[in-house]
Amino acid sequence: MASGAEENKPEFYTYSQENQQSLEKSAGVPLSDFVLQLEDYAPTIPDSVTGYYLNRVGLDSSDPRILRLISLAAQKFISDIANDALQHSRMRASGQSSKKPGKDKKMTLQMEDLSPALSEYGINVKKPIYFV
Amino acid sequence: MAAETNVVSTSNPFRRALKTSISALLVEIGYQAAENLAVETLVEMAQAYIWEAGRSSHALAELAGRTHVMPSDVVLALVEMGLDFTAIPKHAKRENKTVFLPPAQTPPVAQSKILQVGDKRKHPSHIPEHLPPFPDPHTHIKTPCFKQPANEYQLVREKAASQKRDVEVALTRFIAKTGTTQSLFKDDPSAFPLIACKPSPLPYLSALLPSDYELSAQDNCEADMSGRHAVLDHDSMGDDGSGQTLGDGDMIDNPYLLPVRVARKSWR
């Protein structure tokens, strides 16, 4: 699964070229303001968890703003993917609901929804053979 | 990277916390349940994302000639990774944000008092006082619990001399007990027994004649018969000392020095 992150690195860079221009328009004063706001902000991914992973790549994370910025980015990344997966499952459910109406099912995140959502981000996920 | 993260996945508390927070994010979005496989995929991706963000922002900071990462490095790294940064403040200020308490630090285990054994040694004068003190004496002072083997020259020589003397005394006593003795004092014959002296007509002869050991060694090399003859010839000279050598030669209990006897019988 982790190898997926390495495979998609070129994909990230293609994205960056699109977004560079949008950043140049909006970055500057709002960004520094936002970074200042991060001083007292608690992201969903705890600081200690992010700090642990950053330490493992050799980044000394004494500044909580850096931790929170990266936490927020990771959160955003995951949220976007999960949102896409949700849309996929809704679309699938709307296609099926004509056949089986009135079935109120719990929303469950499944791999069959997650895989197309991830492939939009350039990540090809295959089910590991021995995953329990 | 992949192998390392997979190994620690089951036991790593940080990974478990990351899984919890990702589950919280999923609940926010509107899911009620999730496959374990899907959540684990997301956890792995979040991990890789944080990893990559940290790595590239670190690299950017080093590129700028700094060792400490600044927020601008992180922003640049995230943008390089394809993040739309304008959406981040909106994401940060969403209404249904859930924050769960970060895992508390485990309280440090109270150190039990160390049993004090003995008095610690003071520093020698050449060691400054601020250096750590010596540990307990029983941990570093060596006390051998076996006797050192005596290997000094003087001791060895003394021991060898005393052994030699003991052997001589024992042998003398043995001969005195088995053979004839003469006593120094007439009233008490058992006080200081002396080995009886055997007078011989030619006392220098035993020194002139070759010793019995050399003879027998030579004879064993040659034939049995000739050895016999030589010893017998020796005996026929009518010397007391050499007569004793024959007796000694018969008493040899080393089988390799014994004369061969079987040969003559089978030969006939």
Automatic annotation (TrEMBL), chain A:
Signal peptide interval: none
CDD domains: HFD_TAF10 (cd07982)
Region (Disordered): 88-109
One Pfam family cited in the UniProt record for this chain: TAF10
Subcellular location: Nucleus
Chief place where the protein resides: nucleus
GO biological process, one term: transcription initiation at RNA polymerase II promoter
Sorted UniProt keywords: Nucleus, Transcription, Transcription regulation
GO cellular component, one term: SAGA complex
Molecular function, one GO term: promoter-specific chromatin binding
Family (UniProt): Belongs to the TAF10 family.
Protein name: Transcription initiation factor TFIID subunit 10
TrEMBL record, chain B:
GO biological process, one term: transcription initiation at RNA polymerase II promoter
InterPro entries named in the record: BTP, Histone-fold, TAF8, TFIID_su8_C
Compartments reported by the entry: Nucleus
CDD domains referenced in this protein's UniProt entry, alphabetically: HFD_TAF8 (cd22918), TAF8 (cd08049)
Domain Bromodomain associated, first and last residues per copy: 12-87
Recorded GO MF terms: protein heterodimerization activity
Keyword Transcription regulation: yes
The keyword Acetylation belongs to this UniProt entry's keyword annotation: no
A GO cellular component entry from the record: transcription factor TFIID complex
Pfam families assigned: Bromo_TP, TAF8_C
Top-rank taxon, per record: Eukaryota
Sorted UniProt keywords: Nucleus, Transcription, Transcription regulation
Family: Belongs to the TAF8 family.
PANTHER family with a match to the protein in the record: TRANSCRIPTION INITIATION FACTOR TFIID SUBUNIT 8
Protein name (Swiss-Prot/TrEMBL): Transcription initiation factor TFIID subunit 8
